[in-house]
Structures are given as C-alpha cells and as structure tokens.
Design goal:
179 residues; mainly alpha; Arc Repressor Mutant, subunit A; elongated
Length: 179
C-alpha cells in the first residue's frame, strides 16, 4: 500500500494535531511539523502562509475530538468525569484547548453560553428538568470544579484519583440540586 501523501492540507492538519498531542503546542512550528511529516517546510508554508490558520484548524479538530470524548458520557456526572479523564489522558491537547490564552477576557458564563456548549447544556437541562437559563446557573459551579480538577491534573499539580474526584463531584451536584 503506498504511503499517504503528507503535503495535503488535511495531512498537515492531522500531522499538526498529532504533533501537539504528543509533544505539546510549543512543538508546533513549521520546521518541527515538516520533520514530523517527513517533508520540507516549503509545502507547509505554501498551504499555510499564516500559521495562525493552521493552529485554528488544529484547534477545531482538537475541540471536536474533545467534545466527542466527553459527550460519550451518559449523564452530567459522567461528562464531568470524562472531562477530567481527558486532561489525564491527553494533557497536551487539554492545555492546547484550555490553557493557550484563547479565552482571554471571557467570563465562565461566556464560555458556558458558547455555541460549542449547546449539547452539554441541553443534557444538563434534560437531566435536571431545568429551563435553559436554570441549566446555565446549575452548570456554572459544577463546570468550575470540573475544570479546576482537570487543569491541576493536566499540569501534574495533582494526583488523578477517580474515586475521590467522583465523590467530590457527586457532593457538589447534590448540593446544586438542593439549591
């Protein structure tokens, strides 16, 4: 079977995604990507004269990958646990998605109301029997806790203890339900 071409825009985007996944966002340079793909820098610079476009395409791919990963959870608790597990299993992607300054200047509510969160909020709304506005209020403290755990774990600042985390998330969710 012949080797897949590495100079197509799609192959470069896939290669950049793999490079970030393995080595982190700092590794994404034209020279590193060319080496990773086994090609010269010229086709990459031809396809992506502005590397910001490449980063945006990789970000979209990483976001879709992350969303599919967490939405495989069947309820809010499982979605939260999967979000944290993603940070453990894919720390470089997590850092690229959530710690690259992309959300600078936004509030937590802005992030929760983003179009990418529609499916998660719909699940919260349906599971808890809440209106969309109530779902945002319910989800905000839960999301802050989940993201805090995930950030600490992705940056090796905390041990990953799934049972301890699950207990904490259940306690917070139960408190929110009573509220």
């Amino acid at each position: 079977m012949p080797k897949r071409p590495t100079t197509t825009k799609e192959a470069m985007t896939e290669g950049a995604f793999d490079l970030i996944r393995k080595q982190g966002q700092e590794a994404l340079t034209v020279r590193n990507l060319a080496s990773f793909l086994g090609c010269s820098t010229q086709p990459i610079m031809y396809q992506f004269p502005d590397t910001a476009v490449l980063k945006d395409l990789v970000y979209q791919k990483a976001d879709e990958f992350h969303t599919a990963y967490i939405l495989a959870g069947e309820d809010l608790l499982e979605i939260g646990l999967r979000y944290i597990r993603f940070a453990k299993e894919e720390p470089h992607l997590f850092q690229f998605l959530f710690q690259s300054g992309r959300f600078s200047g936004l509030t937590l509510e802005d992030l929760i109301r983003a179009p990418e969160m529609t499916d998660v909020l719909a699940a919260v709304s349906a599971e808890q029997g809440l209106t969309p506005e109530q779902a945002v209020s319910f989800f905000e403290p839960f999301a802050a806790l989940v993201h805090g755990y995930a950030s600490l774990i992705a940056n090796n600042a905390m041990e990953y203890d799934p049972e301890e985390i699950k207990t904490a998330l259940i306690a917070v969710a139960e408190g929110l339900e009573r509220k």
